[in-house]
């Protein structure tokens, strides 16, 4: 005998008659009268399981579930091995949403009658309703092993896969369902979501759009479609979907984080921040919100709010090194180097070999003027790999520390630092100047002149360097003159001849009696040195001019630079060098010398004009205009400054200002050949 099949007890004729009447009334949907007939029959044959089974069924039809359960429990007592009674009990509990009791009943039925495969579907459905998706999947799969074409079970399996976060499996099942009956496929929304989760965004959009056609008010479909568009970088389409969602559900805050991300990607930073804030109010523990808000504030160069949000993020996740790195960077940008170093040190505790963080830490130390610490780190970094920025910073730090030690009169240490900087090829004239000073203090003067000369060459605008260089030369010449005088004094008296002092005819220095004042030997020596240097400078400039006329630009440069070593403050020679480099299209060097010329003489109109021309060649219209306007402020009749300014305004499309400056050019112009050219330009612009 098969388990679950029981032999019925003999029913008396009277009870059987009532049972038949009840069946007839049930057929007529007169369930109440049918129940009464069965209850009468039970009074006659109270141990007949069939009567209680019928009663339980009729009570179920009238939603009298508790009474039906009681009747089925009586059946269980009479027929304890009847699996189907437990299935019926499970159905009632499932209807009542009493899923634990339903599952117990179905499992008891499975224990009694494991061959009844359909029961796997009952169990799976209850497990799905209990959100036990993995268990449900297992039982749906067992059921489909026998009933592979059962559409509802396969739909439920697909939904269970999706709910269990197994989108690949869900896509596989939804795909089978769609291919089997595309016209009646009703899971477009779920299929679209599964496709989204498997990053098949284009196909996801296809099914989500169908879902919205079928159900325009489906929030879940609109949300998934917005996210899919967002992933496809279809920002405007995504934005429309979000607007639909928030129009229907303004208090749906769970998706505001993604909405804020979209707005940020669209450059709508203020709106993005507003949405992040709403999301943060509702989900204050989501660290992503504060990190993303910080990113937007950083984009706006609002470092205070950037830092505030990164600090909040760090409070939620104190182990996030990326946040610490960002905080270090932001404090560094704010020049709060102490706070930057705090975070750099924390990062290095976790990542002691992080090269980039070490670089930034060294730069922060440098900025705090902790040069010795910075030098130590720079040198360590350079043992790891070449880095031109670190090379340059190390050289600068050595010069800066050298200045400090020089001021502290620690000349030996300062000399060592200046020498290191010079060996590294520093372009800072102070390194040469400082080393020259150190040598002079120590009494070693054999290289001092060479060092001063290099300092002046590198920093011609530094009057201190050239003045001290001239002073040093005077000292050397005076010492040589004194040595020569000493030699003369040792000669015999017969060989001595008086030295005639050649005094310049400077009538402004005559005494009241019309005679020239006497000059001491010391004054005369200084004057000879100065005159000799001036003459030498003029001679070098003349040679440079001659070379320039012959297009021997290298020769001209050589002589001009030699002249500048004698007089670093000669604006005209600086201008000539700038002109040569400008002709050679070396705008960088031309700019350098023109800037030096106006540094030496801020009122040098020609220097300002040529500087403006170089800026114009570099398409830096704003800077060029500033220079030409400076020329006009120095010399209101400088015609070509107006002409150049007019061209600059033309470049900017400002016709009115261009015309005005062309007219000013005509007012002061002395070149008749240019009149027609400028008048034509004015006519074209008008």
Detail the poorly predicted runs: 1-8, 485-531
User: Describe the biggest sheet?
Assistant: none
Return the structural class: mainly alpha
Helix content: over 70%
Rg (C-alpha, Å)? 49 Å
Number of helices: 36
Average pLDDT confidence is 87
Number of extended strands: 0
Strand content of the residues, in percent?
Answer: under 5%
Query: Separation of termini?
Result: 113 Å
**What is the 3D form?**
elongated
Question: SSE layout and pairings?
Answer:
Elements lengths: L12 H15 L3 H14 L4 H13 L3 H14 L4 H13 L3 H14 L5 H12 L3 H14 L4 H13 L3 H14 L7 H10 L3 H14 L4 H13 L3 H14 L7 H10 L3 H14 L4 H13 L3 H14 L4 H13 L3 H14 L4 H13 L3 H14 L3 H20 L3 H13 L5 H14 L5 H11 L4 H27 L31 H29 L3 H14 L4 H13 L3 H14 L4 H13 L3 H14 L4 H14 L2 H14 L3 H14 L1
Helix pairs in contact: 1-2, 2-3, 3-4, 4-5, 5-6, 6-7, 7-8, 8-9, 9-10, 10-11, 11-12, 11-13, 12-13, 13-14, 14-15, 15-16, 16-17, 17-18, 18-19, 19-20, 20-21, 21-22, 22-23, 23-24, 23-25, 24-25, 25-26, 26-27, 27-28, 28-29, 29-30, 30-31, 30-32, 31-32, 32-33, 33-34, 34-35, 35-36
How would you explain this protein's 3D organization?
With 686 residues, the protein is mainly alpha-helical. 75% of the residues lie in helices and 0% in strands. The protein is built from 36 helices and no strands. It has helices at residues 13-27, 31-44, 49-61, 65-78, 83-95, 99-112, 118-129, 133-146, 151-163, 167-180, 188-197, 201-214, 219-231, 235-248, 256-265, 269-282, 287-299, 303-316, 321-333, 337-350, 355-367, 371-384, 388-407, 411-423, 429-442, 448-458, 463-489, 521-549, 553-566, 571-583, 587-600, 605-617, 621-634, 639-652, 655-668, 672-685. Helix 11 runs antiparallel to helix 12 (201-214). Mean pLDDT is 87; it is low at 1-8 and 485-531.
């Amino acid at each position: 005998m098969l388990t679950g099949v029981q032999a019925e007890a003999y029913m008396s004729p009277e009870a059987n008659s009532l049972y038949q009447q009840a069946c007839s009334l049930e057929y007529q949907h007169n369930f109440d009268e049918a129940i009464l007939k069965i209850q009468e029959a039970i009074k006659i044959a109270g141990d007949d399981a069939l009567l209680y089974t019928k009663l339980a069924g009729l009570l179920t039809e009238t939603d009298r579930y508790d009474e039906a359960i009681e009747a089925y429990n009586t059946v269980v007592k009479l027929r304890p091995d009847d699996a189907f009674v437990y299935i019926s009990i499970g159905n009632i509990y499932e209807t009542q949403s009493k899923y634990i009791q339903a599952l117990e009943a179905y499992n008891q039925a499975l224990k009694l009658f494991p061959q009844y495969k359909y029961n796997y579907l009952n169990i799976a459905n209850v497990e799905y309703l209990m959100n036990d998706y993995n268990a449900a999947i297992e039982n749906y799969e067992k059921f489909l092993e026998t009933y592979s074409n059962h559409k509802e079970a396969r739909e439920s399996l697909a939904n269970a896969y999706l709910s269990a976060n197994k989108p690949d499996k869900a896509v596989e099942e939804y795909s089978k369902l769609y291919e089997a009956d595309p016209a009646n496929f009703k899971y477009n929304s779920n299929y679209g979501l599964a496709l989204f989760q498997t990053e098949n965004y284009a196909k996801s959009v296809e099914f989500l759009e169908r879902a919205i056609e079928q159900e325009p008010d489906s929030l879940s479909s609109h949300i998934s479609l917005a996210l899919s568009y967002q992933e496809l970088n279809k920002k405007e389409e995504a934005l429309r979907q979000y607007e639909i969602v928030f129009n229907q559900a303004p208090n749906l805050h769970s998706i505001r984080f993604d909405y804020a991300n979209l707005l940020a990607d669209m450059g709508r930073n203020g709106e993005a921040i507003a949405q992040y804030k709403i999301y943060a109010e509702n989900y204050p523990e989501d660290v992503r919100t504060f990190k993303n808000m910080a990113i937007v504030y950083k984009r706006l160069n609002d470092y205070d709010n950037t830092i505030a949000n990164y600090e909040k993020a760090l409070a939620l996740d104190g182990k996030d090194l990326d946040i610490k790195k960002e905080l270090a960077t932001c404090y560094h940008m704010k020049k709060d180097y102490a706070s930057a170093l705090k975070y750099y040190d924390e990062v290095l505790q976790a990542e002691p070999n992080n090269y980039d963080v070490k670089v930034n830490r060294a730069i922060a130390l440098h900025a705090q003027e902790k040069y010795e610490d910075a030098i130590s780190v720079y040198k360590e970094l350079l043992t790891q790999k070449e880095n031109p920025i670190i090379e340059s910073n190390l050289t600068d730090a050595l010069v800066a520390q050298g200045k400090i030690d020089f001021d502290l009169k620690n000349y030996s240490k300062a000399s060592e630092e200046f020498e290191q900087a010079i060996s590294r090829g520093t372009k800072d004239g102070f390194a040469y100047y400082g080393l020259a000073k150190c040598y002079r203090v120590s009494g070693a003067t054999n290289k001092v002149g060479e060092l001063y000369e290099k300092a002046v060459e590198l920093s011609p605008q530094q009057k201190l360097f050239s003045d001290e260089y001239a002073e040093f030369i005077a000292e050397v010449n005076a010492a040589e003159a004194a040595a020569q005088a000493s030699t003369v004094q040792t000669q015999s008296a017969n060989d001595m001849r008086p030295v005639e002092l050649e005094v310049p005819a400077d009538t402004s220095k005559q005494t009241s009696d019309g005679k020239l004042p006497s000059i001491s030997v010391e004054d005369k020596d200084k004057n000879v040195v100065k005159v000799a240097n001036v003459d030498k400078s003029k001679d070098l400039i003349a040679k440079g001019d001659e070379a320039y006329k012959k297009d021997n630009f290298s020769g001209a440069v050589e002589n001009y630079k030699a002249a500048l070593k004698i007089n670093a403050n000669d604006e005209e020679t600086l201008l000539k060098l700038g002109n040569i480099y400008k002709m050679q299209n070396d705008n960088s060097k031309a700019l350098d010398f023109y800037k030096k010329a106006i540094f030496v003489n801020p009122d040098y109109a020609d220097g300002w004009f040529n500087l403006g021309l170089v800026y114009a060649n570099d398409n830096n219209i704003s800077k060029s205009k500033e220079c030409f306007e400076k020329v006009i402020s120095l010399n209101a009749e400088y015609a070509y400054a107006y002409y150049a300014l007019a061209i600059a305004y033309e470049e900017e499309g400002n016709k009115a200002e261009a015309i005005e400056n062309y007219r000013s050019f005509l007012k002061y112009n002395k070149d008749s050949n240019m009149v027609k050219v400028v008048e034509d330009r004015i006519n074209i612009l008008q």
